[in-house]
Design goal:
The protein has about 575 residues and is an alpha/beta fold. The protein folds into 4 domains: about 20-105 and about 295-310, no CATH class; about 105-265, no CATH class; about 335-345 and about 400-565, von Willebrand factor, type A domain (Rossmann fold, 3-Layer(aba) Sandwich), CATH 3.40.50; about 365-400, no CATH class. The chain has helices spanning about 35-50, 90-105, 110-120, 125-145, 155-170, 175-190, 215-225, 230-235, 240-265, 300-310, 320-325, 350-360, 420-435, 475-485, 510-520, 535-545, 555-565; strands at about 60, 75, 335, 340, 365-375, 375-380, 395-400, 405-410, 445-450, 455-460, 465-470, 495-500, 525-530, 550. Strands 3-10-9-8-12-13-14 form a 7-stranded mixed β-sheet, with helices on both faces. Strands 5-7-6 form a 3-stranded antiparallel β-sheet, with no helix packed on it. Helix 4 runs parallel beside helix 6 (about 175-190). The longest helix has 23 residues, at about 125-145. The protein is elongated. The protein starts with about 35 loop residues before the first helix and ends in a 6-residue tail after the last helix.
Length: about 575
């Protein structure tokens, strides 16, 4: 019997509506449970915000406990709720909202808007309203241009597309100021970076012109508005001072304001314009597909509490540290950080070799024998096999092992930045490369400050790889040392914590609580002061006593490290 085979197309993947987002390429920690999924997404968004800068406030879902409303970014849960795991399209839009709000705080947008208002005080109500619309859109364009300098511009684009599509449903018969400003946003913030240099054509307006010739209305005003985009994009980010950047932007806006006002003098601003509209219409959040409307709907208190509990579990060490620090009033919050960056600094081979030779003197040598070999040295214990298999040889290998676990704790505060951080990265990278050959439990931690919280980050999440962090903030050495000691898994070996810093603690509780706790738990704490100023050396000596050595160059490090280790009786 002949069986005829059929060629059937193999299904490699299934299409899931809404799963086309950019975030689908990297977001893997998902859950079908609402509270857990919202907690996972919030943690992911906070990681992204951690790369933006130090001025970004805490990010929460609306309805969660608020600690500082003035600097917090409160996300509307209605952006993402309804389907779990949250689709990539909704995730992208939520990230776009955070990118916008974060850069708004970093670049002091509110200050720039207020400065323009103070410089132009004597205006009628309709002109004031028009000025507000113009400056807010100009600032939005600037924030998008800043975001476009990194991959975050992709998320800013998702936000921009949704908001323009949403606004399109509210446009009335052209010409209107609102439509002009949104077309300007579309051209000026385009990811290609060159659309603003072209003359406006109807074909550029992807949302349709409904039969109107928009070029005759908007071409000249857009040429004027686009005249400042090049300076916003290229010149403004070069200015170091954030105050000066605000002043620079205000100058650009005021430069074209009068000409812009004359070009749009008798236009209706939008549906809320009470000057030229016989009756201002009641405008709601109109969106064609109804999926991403932004009516604020805080999450239920029960769900909010569950999210907070999920996020705090195994991450916040503040209360545990507080008990050890005896409720010190200066204690600062400390959490486990998760934001790491791939280490780009090449391994210093010379330092690796010198550290290996130095640390071998503090290791126990163990001989490992492989017996019954066909070649090698003759094994007297296997000579009876000479007449049978001939496998009378052995191979001896010497292995160096530490009788203690070495943990490196690196100060990643703002004072360690710049060229010094490059050197510090060489040190902890070489340390990890060497010590992991002597002890399988070696780990490298780094601590820094972000948004008034000390973050302790494990740089050795993977067995054979090491990462880095961005040096920033103040130095909370006491909290970091206690937290590191709490995270250690105690075995038969006595752990050693080597603290690498450039100065004394300038934030948080007293270091004395940390040193006392290490003594109580029989943890050996040693400090290496690298590149310290004279006053910092004195302060470190006062804090750590004899368990501190000062290093000024990489060449000194192996010798000083051995000297520090020799202060203890065993290794």
């Amino acid at each position: 019997m002949n069986v005829k085979s059929e060629n059937r197309e193999v299904i490699n993947r299934f299409y899931i509506p809404g799963g086309e987002g950019i975030s689908e390429f990297w977001r893997r920690n998902k859950s079908p449970v609402e509270a857990r999924e919202l907690a996972n997404l919030l943690l992911a968004i906070r990681k992204i915000a951690g790369f933006l800068g130090p001025n970004v406030g805490s990010i929460i879902w609306a309805g969660m406990k608020s600690f500082n409303e003035s600097s917090e970014i409160s996300l509307n849960p209605s952006l993402v709720v309804g389907s779990y795991p949250i689709p990539g399209v909704k995730t992208d839009y939520a990230i776009g909202v955070v990118v916008r709000e974060a850069y708004k705080q970093i670049e002091w947008s509110e200050r720039a808007i207020n400065l323009v208002g103070r410089k132009l005080t004597k205006m009628s109500a309709d002109k004031t309203y028009r000025l507000k619309k113009f400056v807010e859109m100009a600032e939005q364009i600037y924030l998008d241009l800043v975001a476009n300098r990194s991959v975050l511009g992709l998320y800013a684009e998702k936000y921009r597309q949704v908001k323009i599509k949403e606004a399109r449903g509210n446009f009335i018969q052209p010409p209107t100021v609102d439509e002009l400003l949104h077309i300007w946003w579309l051209m000026a913030a385009d990811l290609s970076g060159c659309l603003y240099q072209q003359e406006f054509k109807d074909t550029m307006y992807v949302f349709g012109n409904y039969g109107y010739n928009l070029e005759k209305y908007y071409q000249e005003p857009l040429r004027l508005l686009n005249s400042i985009v090049g300076e916003l994009k290229e010149e403004c980010p070069k200015i170091q001072s954030i105050v000066d950047r605000c002043e620079y932007r205000v100058g650009l806006y005021l430069r074209i304001w009068e000409e812009y006002l004359n070009a749009t003098n008798f236009w209706i601003t939008d549906l809320g314009d009470t000057t030229y509209m016989p009756k201002a219409l009641d405008v709601g959040d109109i969106l064609d597909d109804g999926e991403l409307g932004e009516a604020l709907k805080p999450i239920l208190a029960v769900v909010a509490n569950e999210i907070e509990a999920l996020m705090q579990s195994n991450r916040n060490l503040t209360e545990e540290v507080r008990l050890i620090a005896k409720n010190d009033d200066e204690l600062v919050p400390i959490e486990i950080g998760e934001v790491v960056i791939p280490l780009q600094e090449p391994v210093n081979r010379d330092l690796v070799q010198k550290l290996r030779i130095a640390l071998q003197t503090h290791c126990k040598k163990r001989n490992i024998y492989s017996r019954g070999m066909k070649s090698g040295r003759i094994d007297a214990r296997r000579l009876y096999r000479a007449m049978t298999t001939g496998e009378v040889f052995c191979y001896k290998k010497s292995k160096y092992e530490m009788e203690n676990d070495l943990i490196l704790l690196v100060d990643a505060s703002g004072s360690m930045g710049g060229l010094k951080w490059k050197t510090i990265q060489q040190i902890f990278s070489a340390f990890f490369q060497v010590v992991k050959g002597f002890s399988k439990n070696t780990r490298v931690f780094a601590y820094n400050e972000t948004r008034n919280t000390c973050y302790l980050t494990d740089l050795t999440l993977k067995k054979d790889e090491i990462y880095t962090v961005m040096p920033q903030g103040r130095t909370a050495s006491g909290e970091a040392i206690i937290a590191t000691a709490l995270l250690l898994k105690r075995r038969m070996k006595v752990p050693f914590i080597i603290h690498l810093t450039d100065g004394a603690s300038n934030w948080g509780s007293e270091v004395k609580y940390a040193t006392d706790f290490c003594k109580k738990k029989k943890i050996k704490l040693m400090t290496v002061g690298f590149g310290c100023a004279k006053d910092n050396k004195t302060a470190l000596k006062k804090e750590y006593g004899e368990q501190v050595e000062f290093v000024d160059t990489l060449q000194e490090l192996p010798r000083k490290l051995v000297k520090l280790l020799s202060h203890v009786a065993y290794m």
